Amino acid sequence: MPAFGSLILGQMAEPTGIGWLLHQAARWTSGPWAFVYVIVLIWMLAYCAKYDPDRGMWLWIMLLFHPFGTIAYFFIRWLPSSTLQPPKFLQRFLGGRELERKRIAAAQIGNAHQHVELGDALREIGRLKEAGDAYDRALEKDPKNLAALWGAGLVAYRLENYSTAREKLASVLEIDPSYKFGDVSLTYANTLLKLNENEAAQTHLEQHTKRWRHPESLYRLAEIHAQNGEPKAARELLQGLIMDVDASPKAISRKFYFWKGRAKRLIRKLPAA
Q1: Which of 36, 58, 96, 233 is the most buried (most CB within 10 A)?
Q2: What domain count does the chain have?
């Protein structure tokens, strides 16, 4: 009996059910995994605050329910809509050698293609000023290089240099209006909006949406109609956006749920027709 009692006192039963889940949560939020968890938490919080239309709910879930809220957000919200790219600080850490290889190739070979590759690599890790310089060097070699013009325009847009962005993007569209399957055209429309050229943006988006029904392009055009006091036209575009997303294959529709959510909210704000 004493031996049995000692065994009971000396050993703790393995947790099961809720206890096991709480035990795993403690492992994730303390010890060697704590650093990894904090990085993932910050990553998900930043992504949610910037992009998620339901950020008000999900931010609280992630902040209050550790680590299950973060894990749930990763699988339910981030994963379906992401391109599976790690955060920029991690890309910088992991891609240093590849970046240096492209820098050497640009210096030694020096063709427009090598400078574009370097610009793309720099842009992907957020070094926009350096990326812009690389694209400019590519354009010195080949002023009509579409990839360089697109890269330079995109960098200028992200740096909020909208006049330069408009010039570069317009040059791409003059050469190939369908370049990047409408991405250039959509960025050009957004540039016009940033420059408060709403009438030109509306004209461009009306043509754009006849060819490409990007959810964002439909939403932007609906916003313009709403601002112009045309709720019926805005509502029709937003309802079309929602139907397009709902009719898409699940893998595609998940990538556009942000725009679907924004469309629903804008519809609720529109005055009755």
Answers
A1: 58
A2: 1
